[in-house]
Amino acid sequence: MLDVEGLSFARGKNTLFKSLSFSLKAGSALRVTGSNGSGKTSLLRLLAGLSRPDEGEILWCGEAIRKNYGDFVRSVNFLGHDDGLKNQLTATENLKLMLPLLGTSPSASEVVAALEEAGLDSVKDRAVMHMSAGQKRRVALARTDFMKHRALWILDEPFTSLDVTAVTALVVKLKRHIQFGGLLVFTTHQDLDVIPDANSLSLD
Amino acid sequence: MNNAFWSLLRKELLLAVRQKTDVVTVLFFFLIVSSLFPFAVGPESNTLKLIGPGVIWVGALLCSLLALHRVFEADYNDGSLEHLILSGEPLTILVLAKIISHWLITGLPVVIVAPLIGIQFGLPPQSLLLLLGTLLLGTPVLSLIGSIGAGLTLGVRGGSALTSILILPFYVPILIFGAGAVVADLQGLTIDGHISILVAMLCLSVALAPLAIAGAIKIALE
Q1: Is ipTM > 0.90 here?
Q2: For residue A115, is it within any domain?
Q3: Are B137 and B204 in contact (CB under 8 A)?
Q4: For A9-39, how does the pLDDT look when each residue is reduced to its tens digit (9 = 90+)?
């Protein structure tokens, strides 16, 4: 479903990767590893179509993602380094006002249920600025509950700042996504073999 | 699409309610800048009447510049801008929602307060109404054109100063025809031409600015 052909990308004069090729089929995962500055985030941004490669092509269902980008992004669930949350709004408000932009309009009770599942019941009406980094990450990840219909999940360091309980819950969620035929591309610095069947790509 | 537009608009307005200082700062800046001029040029009523529209328009223009960094900077820094691109909705529509909210937050309060400042300059009721009308037509153009600059300088160090340098030349025609309409009316001249040009500038910027801004944002994120 996802084919990367001869991808090259440079930041200024620094070539991050050259002639990178791989394929990912439905129901599989790819773990991207590498040291700081090796290009993991850049690769994920390229896969989401947020940046353009210097050379090469990214194909989704056999078609270049740039050709029909509007349709492609409706298949993508992207979580970058930043959580995309508004500090002044509560966790509930952030989800309720962000999700319609992503093509889904859940009811208030569905949003509350997602936050409860993420272990944020007691802080769901607290402004995000008063939350810990881990709680913010959980709010951002709670979005994925409403993005199950999007086949390609691209998650940049999703386990950062999470406690053991949250990591376990997220792993269950990710495995379920893969089981149902979804694709997962993620990066992690941690030495976590969270998805044992995941393919591995090292950028070092 | 409508759902995303209204949701983004609601989000921006809710953020403005939570961050009242941004709105209040712009409004106070406008009141102070506009109110200083009568102290400087003296109480001569004819002089005040003639400079009044220009001073108020310059004040509105500076307020627009002051608030421009709000349009995209926070979204760029917290990652929300990426989600706008990945929403699958036309970016031009979402950009328009952001500019409308920006105008409602920073432009409309200035428009509402402007006639009160006009009274300070001794403008007659008819001129106050005309001032209100020209600002209603012109301040959205300031937001639209200004947002192009804000989009182009996203992620650039010292972006606010660069935005001002880029955008100020394009603000000049709006200033000339906006303030000029009120002054021409005070002098008993026809104002049809001024109003027509302001309407044309508004239509043109509504049609073209979101396209330019969407392109600028995509480039900035790449």
Answers
A1: no
A2: yes
A3: no
A4: 998 888 888 899 999 999 999 999 888 888 8
